[in-house]
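Could you help me review a protein record that somebody else here produced? What it holds is a sequence and that sequence's fold in token form. I need someone to confirm that the token line plausibly describes how this chain folds. Take the sequence as given and treat only the tokens as open to question. This is what I was given:
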Amino acid sequence: MKTRILFLPVLLLAALLVVAGCKKQKTPAPENDPATVEEAPDMSQYMPSLQVGEFAPLFEAPDILDETVGLSDFLGDYLVIDFWATWCKDCRAELPGMKDLYNTYGPKGVQFLGVSFDTDKQTLVDYCFANEIPWMQVCNGIKWKENPISADYDLHWIPTMYLLDPDGKILGICFTAKELGKMLATLQYS
């Protein structure tokens, strides 16, 4: 009987220690700790040959309502051009970040233009409505690697985002909404 009585408190103590150990919170590692920093892949091989300060190549393409839209329609405003496609996993992954940027910088006068490399326009239309993409989309229905717009912008990866100044000059080129956000944060808005 005595061993049973002694065994019960020891068992309870062990259970408390286990529970306390499970509830113990890990201290987050410092952000600058090299062991915790996820290295971004080297995307330099995909960087277009167009340079900051050059004028962006002009183009025209139909929007999802089949109205012709030209890059020149956006002169006078800062413009984000997002080259993407609905079939592109990386492009879809960037959509929440792009929406956040649109909601933050659209009211400040930054225009957004999606240039889709989908070949089936209805797929694009359905995707835009299902995902509530509020900015204008154009699509000429030509495959990415065969598309003259892609060739003019020297695209080797999608998504690729260009930031243009109000005169149509390239201010920056990037591959993620996070990088684009850093560029947009440096602009002076009127």
